[in-house]
Amino acid sequence: MKIKSFEEYLSTYRKSVEDPEAFWSGIAQEFHWRKLWKKTLSWDFNDLDVQWFIGGKLNITENCLDRHVLTHPDKVAIIWESNEPTDIFVKITYRELYEKVCQFANVLKNNGVKKGDRVCIYMPMVPEAAVAMLACARIGAIHSVVFAGFSANSLADRINDAQCNAIITSDIAYRGNKTLEIKQIVDEALQKTPSIQRCIVYQRGEGKVNMVEGRDTWWHEEIKKANKEFEAEEMDSEDPLFILYTSGSTGKPKGVVHSTGGYMVYTKFTFENVFQYEENDVYWCTADVGWITGHSYIVYGPLLAGATVLMFEGIPTYPDAGRFWRVIAKHRVNIFYTAPTAIRSLMTFGEEFITPYNLSTLKVLGSVGEPINEEAWQWFYKNIGKSRCPIVDTWWQTETGGIMISPLPRITVQKPTFATLPLPGVQPIVVDNNGKEIHGNGVEGNLCIKFPWPSMIRTTYGDHERCKQNYFATYKGLYFTGDGCKRDEDGYYRITGRVDDVINVSGHRIGTAEVENAINQHIAVVESAVVGYPHDIKGQGIYAFVICESKPENEEQFKKEVLNVVTREIGAIAKPDIIQVVEGLPKTRSGKIMRRILRKIAEGDTSNLGDITTLLDPTIVESIKEGAAALR
Ligand code: PRX
Description:
The protein is an alpha/beta fold. It has an 8-stranded mixed beta sheet with strand order 12-11-8-6-7-14-15-23, sandwiched between helices. A 7-stranded mixed beta sheet has the order 5-4-17-16-18-19-20, sandwiched between helices. About 50% of the residues are buried.
């Protein structure tokens, strides 16, 4: 079902709110189910129990692959552009993808993976990452993709939390001019993960890695023994499809669990509508499969829709800052979905990197992951879209599974920096800090959703209570997003950013507590407090205030060590941009750190720090301010 006009959007939206069950059950009919559902929805936000398409039986890969093999087997499913900008690239048709997935499903089975098992995927951006995900889905195993930039410790934590029994990885990964020793990281992680029985290694480089007898095996060796047909496992609509770890306000990342039927229905519906995908379009999303954007809008959404999706292994600035535009011209990309941080970074290189390339095939541009500032929006619109391509500023989260608030291109009147209006089936409300709904337009508050949508989070793996507490307890009866928002006079939503202790660095979610826990591992550190601050390119930067046992003799050296510890504990993406050694932290008498003050200092806005008289030691603020000024 594709909405074609604003009137149609309004009437569809109205129907979706008046009778959500009829609305979604109509959309769900478009898919192949082995057995239809008996009841469309049952829900309870207080005791967190949400089920969609109850009793429905299916396998999502039959909808991603088998259906398309019947109708258009030779259509290209995946175009793969490698890190190196050579003329050679890979095209995989739906038939070929089907065969690869079936073959790898057999490999998993041969290696002892069964329905319901958890399988970790730690891979670079190669088509085999998508094959591995779909092969898991085909046999009914739950995949847990971990972004291949996370450290061995982070990887081990995630494997242990989900008790994965197999991991799929590669020997190395290419990222720009760097070669990352992925398998070495895995080897280190696997020393702490007793549940892992098998490690299947895809050879991306020369394959010169250590292979552990009885545990490790090569992808290419395994597929030689595997058949290209695999009868898909029958899954219940509510069976988990995948786990994806994301950061929250507490120290430990949580495994967001998505289920099969609802996720399938929602990702295809939103993909087709938000990007207005047409039959022969080439669609490119620059995310990594390690994040939810990669799951929903590189793998599942586009393949469910039978689209041609481009997968890119490299980075925007290799071999130069024209790489994105070169790829768009080379593959005649029609729809381009990226993150504000990439746009802001490429803006700084100037237009000479764009002009050599023909971008006339572009029809729709998209933005995701963080608020897009007006300057970046305008630059993207004018320089890349040549003032003729609408930008869809899509707001959503790992937990929502799919896009929630977004314009529909050429349908919704766009407004820079606004995600605009909710998609059909999405019922946002704005509440004040007491959870009271703020009615009307021209208002600001906390963004909540009051009614279930098919691809919403079902639980956090192994800890349902935590999921309830995290998302459904702050405001009774509502899903709380953790975001603040404005609703303007036109009823348009603008997301203003996180209101909890989560920071958004280059579109990556990082919990301040996680970074603090990592920094505190440094032997000389007594305590630390981490806050976000505005950063020109990254959106938010990480600012760490650190108390040491004694003043470091060589502060530069100490800071380097702290960065290394964070890289070791979490990964390079969580490295603080600024580290300030302080003598104390602004604490209340009950020992709580007043982060509000630290945030202000990190922002460089110390004119009005508010009431500091309740602090145990108000003089500490002066010394932190002075230290911060000296760092700038
Ligand atoms: O703060 C919001 C921000 O990213 C958070 C979700 O991060 P994650 O789960 O990693 O998923 C990112 C990709 C969907 C949100 O709570 N965010 C995401 N999209 C936008 C956004 N903030 C403003 N505008 C957006 N379009």
